[in-house]
Design a protein that fits this description.
Length: 101
């Protein structure tokens, strides 16, 4: 398994590639993540070209079953966030190491 990419990692990449100070890079990353979160909370779709989309979907009430006891229980309606990878990203994952070039 690979490692986890953190906000600090993203800030460091912005610092190295864009040329902002480390503090400005960290602030920029925070602002982008905050805007994405706010948009998702408002129910908007967040689409990042060549990466994927974050969508909020509503799930209706349904009957579920406790797998241990078999007892039926109602599952309340709720909203869930779904991520769908773009075709470009899927292809890069399938190609493996070719994506690093």
């Amino acid at each position: 398994m690979g490692r986890t990419i953190t906000r600090a990692d993203l800030s460091e990449v912005v610092y190295k590639k864009v040329g902002l100070s480390r503090a400005e890079s960290a602030e920029l990353v925070e602002q982008v993540i905050d805007e994405m979160c706010d948009a998702v909370v408002r129910g908007e779709t967040v689409k990042l070209s060549s990466f994927g989309s974050f969508v909020v979907r509503s799930k209706n009430e349904r009957i579920g079953r406790n797998p241990k006891t078999g007892v039926e229980v109602p599952i309340t309606p709720r909203k869930v966030m779904v991520y769908k990878a773009s075709n470009v990203l899927r292809q890069r994952v399938l190609d493996g190491n070719k994506a690093k070039k």
